[in-house]
Amino acid sequence: MKKRIILLDTTLRDGEQSLKFNLTTKEKIEIALALEKMGIDIIEVGFPISSPIDYKTSKELAKIIKNSKLCGLARCKKKDIDMVYHSLKKTDNFRIHIFLATSPIHIITKLKTTFNKVLEKISFMIKYARQYTDDIEFSCEDATRTPINNLCNVVQTAITAGATTINIPDTVGYIFPQEYYNIILNLKNKVKNIDKCIISVHTHNDLGMAVGNSITAINAGAQQIEGTINGIGERAGNCALEEIIMALYTRKKNMNFYTNINVHNIYYTSKIVSKICNIPISINKAIVGSNAFSHSSGIHQDGMIKNRNTYEILNPKNIGLNKTEFNLTSKSGRAAVKYHMDLMGYKENTYNINLLYDNFIKLADKKGQVFNYDLESLAFNSLKDNNTEYFSLKYFNVESNSHLSIATIKLQCGKVIKLESATGLGAVNAIYKTIIRITNYNIKLINYILKAKSHTEKSIGEVNIKIKYKTKIFNGIGFSKDIIKASVIAIINCLNSIWRSNQVQKNILKINQS
Ligand code: KIV
Ligand code: ZN
Question: What would be the CATH architecture of the domain defined by 3-277?
Answer without folding.
Answer: Alpha-Beta Barrel (3.20)
